[in-house]
Amino acid sequence: MRKVYYITKKNTNRLIKEVEYLELLEICFVEDSMLKQKIKEVECLLFTSKNAVFALEHFMPKEWQNLPCYVIGEGSKKALESLGGKVEFVASAAYGDLFGRELVEILRGKKVLFVRAKKVASNLVEILKKGGIVVLESILYETKILNISEDKKQSFKEDSIFFFSAPSSLRAFLQNYAWRESYLALCIGKSTAKVAEELLGKNAKISLSPKINIKDSLEFAKQLARENNNE
């Protein structure tokens, strides 16, 4: 069976069997001195990552929980619910641009706070503003790449499958390892797949996951590994 590797952040729960976890990223919280004032001004909160949920709770425990929350993905939804947040809406798919178009239909004329990372891959804010939504932003975390020392670097077999859940995970891999033509890059989301094409080249084997969350995508990767093993 081909090996499946998941490029992820430090201290990720290793819940999926038959998957190798490569911890090449670190989530660092970033303070926003205007956060409390922004919370007072808006009618709801937007999240595209569970890391943003945890960052908000870190800086303002419980003070935000009465505001309705609009999110991408089951991960963000579960994180909010575990902290007592009010989940008003979950995007129909894990794509920032689609999320934006859906929100325009239900939040036009409202003032919202987008709790986000330092870098985002979608055009969400631009879409919301063009759709008549007043958007405040609060950058509460950033994703940093870890540099692995040569003596701790792994070696990978030919035809290995690497799962990338965000553009940052691609950059983290390439900062530490070289890409080989036999590898397969399995990506969540069109933004990640687009970055994969730019960084890995047109001849690279790149596949867009048909699943919209990490757990199901990893199960899909394992299925790919078994199918190729039986050919």
Shape descriptor reads globular
Helix and strand sequence: EEHEHEHEHEHEEHEHEH
Summarize model confidence as the mean pLDDT.
93
Enter the CATH topology name of the largest domain: Rossmann fold
Count helical runs.
8
Describe the protein in words.
The structure is a single chain. The protein has 231 residues and is an alpha/beta fold. The chain folds into two domains: 4-25 and 150-228, Rossmann fold, CATH 3.40.50.10090; 31-143, Rossmann fold (3-Layer(aba) Sandwich). It has eight helices and ten strands. It has a ten-stranded mixed β-sheet with strand order 5-4-3-6-7-2-1-8-9-10, sandwiched between helices. Helix 2 runs parallel beside helix 3 and helix 4 packs parallel to helix 5.
List keywords for this structure.
single chain; 231 residues; alpha/beta; Rossmann fold; 2 domains; ten-stranded mixed β-sheet; 10 strands; globular; lyase; 4pyrrol_synth_uPrphyn_synth; Uroporphyrinogen-III synthase; 4pyrrol_syn_uPrphyn_synt_sf; EC 4.2.1.75
